[in-house]
Amino acid sequence: MSVDDALPEQTRRRRADKGHTAGVKAVAAAAGVSLGTVSNVLNRPEMVSPLTRAKVEAAMASLGFVRNESARQLRAGSSRILAYLMLDAGNPFFTDVAKGVEEAAQAAGLSVFLCNSNEDVDREADYLDLLEQQRVQGILITPVDQNSSRLRKLPSRGTPVVVVDRALDDAEHCSVAVNDVLGGELAITHLLELGHELIAFVGGPNTIGQVVDRRDGARSALEKNERSAKALIELTTGALTVAEGRGAGQRLAGLPVDRRPSAVFCANDLLALGLLQQCVSMGLRVPEDVAIVGYDDIEFAAAAAVPLTSVRQPRQLLGRTAAELLLDESSNPDHEHQRVTFTPELVVRTSTRGAI
Amino acid sequence: MSVDDALPEQTRRRRADKGHTAGVKAVAAAAGVSLGTVSNVLNRPEMVSPLTRAKVEAAMASLGFVRNESARQLRAGSSRILAYLMLDAGNPFFTDVAKGVEEAAQAAGLSVFLCNSNEDVDREADYLDLLEQQRVQGILITPVDQNSSRLRKLPSRGTPVVVVDRALDDAEHCSVAVNDVLGGELAITHLLELGHELIAFVGGPNTIGQVVDRRDGARSALEKNERSAKALIELTTGALTVAEGRGAGQRLAGLPVDRRPSAVFCANDLLALGLLQQCVSMGLRVPEDVAIVGYDDIEFAAAAAVPLTSVRQPRQLLGRTAAELLLDESSNPDHEHQRVTFTPELVVRTSTRGAI
DNA sequence: CGGAGTTGATGAAAGGTTTCAAAAGTGGTC
DNA sequence: GACCACTTTTGAAACCTTTCATCAACTCCG
Predict the structure, then answer these.
(1) Rounded to an integer, what distance in angstroms lies between the CA atom of residue A8 and that of residue A6?
(2) Would the pLDDT of B11 be above 60?
(3) Cβ distance of B71 and A74 shorter than 8 Å
(4) pTM reported for the whole predicted model
(5) Does the N-terminal peptide bond of residue A287 adopt cis geometry, omega within 30 degrees of 0?
(6) CA of B124 vs C1' of C12, distance in Å?
(7) Mutate which of A12, A72, A102, A111 to disrupt the B interface (most B C-beta within 10 Å)?
(8) Do A237 and A204 meet the contact criterion of CB atoms below 8 Å apart?
(9) Given its phi and psi angles, is residue A119 left (phi above 0), alpha (psi -120 to 50 degrees) or beta?
(10) Helix A24-31 to helix A35-43 angle, to the nearest 10 degrees?
């Protein structure tokens, strides 16, 4: 007693001990009803008399009852949660996709947990395990590693998967993507039309499918225009980040003028923004000395030092569609796996255009 | 039989039915050991003989055993997951904070679920309920609504809470913040030193504490410099987004020249970037016609059309510290609630400086 | 007043994992 | 061959919720 008096913080601490939370049983006892009735108040309130309901609700309030979701899920077999495992939470492109996912999930009464693999294969694998063990309703993922055996096994074990911004050749899940090859073609075709002869491609690592496709699109555009493959210089980066973009900018600016490309196509806008910043700070003029095309058309592309020409993707729509496919898969017994492909669009701005 | 033959997709569908997943019981049966032994293989592998372990592991692999995290948590009482409920996942500031959180969590062997309240009070409340019901280890939150009764109740019920980028007057949890009042003062003092007489403050809504503090800092700087309160024109926005920033830009540019502020202090960088973009597109020169100061110093601020002067916060450190406090709270019985405050720093760039 | 029908409340069982005290097995020693 | 110390395995109990068949009470009608 005197101890409690002397140490109020300890009281607080004790209160925070785990395991003290009241469960349905305690509520039932307090309200003087049975277990089942409490459960009915929670799940089928209309079939319990107003009087009883009031008693139970009062008991819940006074005991600070919090439903135990684990127990609930255990019984139910699956949760009301859906997860989006992002490639890079720091890239506005993916947070826009996430916004679309949230939109669709909310409309269906589900919640979304976002996870960030940060382009790290191990992190991705860990999260996949975790989410499967959590028995989430389904997983939306923009994979780092498209050959992940973990990923392939999920659907057959009961966790639906929808691949976002990528199309796997696997038939076990839906996917929603944008035609990245076409996007690459658009970018390079635009630069060729402007008269550029030597072009750099900045992107990497090559484990990322988007990078590969966009590069393939770039090459194919060269071919279609009957240019040599040597017209494309490849600068490989370790990730698709602003910092890597700056690094690439430095390498670019370091080239002797006669071998320096007059235009650069970056695998995403973060790279492009970093590259742009570095070029400007090293005295190269954009677009006079170097023209730059980005990819994604994130909100910041238009607000850049030199507004960025970029290949636009329907970001939010991508997320919304993916979530809808997932919901269909987990609720509709006649679900057929689909591969939805959207078409990108080139948005031309100052970074490739002479004038203001 | 013939039906199965004719419709291979249906087979696939059936396989994806829920409830078929093998549990410890099935594994035990398949390996010819008891339930407890399987559990030992999972949790204390060193105390089961290599031979038995091999048998069990083989059985797990062949049955595709996936641990049921719900059941696990139910027994254990809490999970190995920690959640960060963000104010706006589209704002790079918060994703940087999240990165710090993930860093600290990973070091401690925990996983992080990110949730996005999107500045919506109801969404925030829903997520808080959900996370509490999930019995997460703890919740990191940048609150929309600092008076949320839900939020206040959490710690006493056993879910530790750390408030990020905000300090509540409540004594029931730790908080990690940056001195926003000081940040506001830094910004305005800088503008006054440059000779600006009429300054606009752009930010809102006023339910967001950061906005209020930064505005208060702005006012206090005026006072300290013996200027009239009228020297600060307030343009209130509905959210801290690029779009709202553009709107504010439009309102600003619409003012008659003699009543138009020569400088603007924006409550965050997104507003500043939007405002900057709008001003430029409406023919105002920055910084000649309008000087702009942002807040947060996100990576994109430096890459903007006109590199942005901004108040820098230690973003990642903020997240890391918050997560560490949370971990301490849930593991250390002698934990004392702390209120950590970092100091912001003004980064001057072209948007407030005459020359290049 | 008896029986049918309706409404509301009950409580046991199930769901998958972990824990722990107890049992079984192993090897060595006197 | 009995006993001891030690390692390994066992199985029942507990965690909390939901479901569902069953029961009780009440209303209405003949």
Answers:
(1) 6
(2) no
(3) yes
(4) 0.89
(5) yes
(6) 39
(7) A111
(8) yes
(9) left
(10) 110
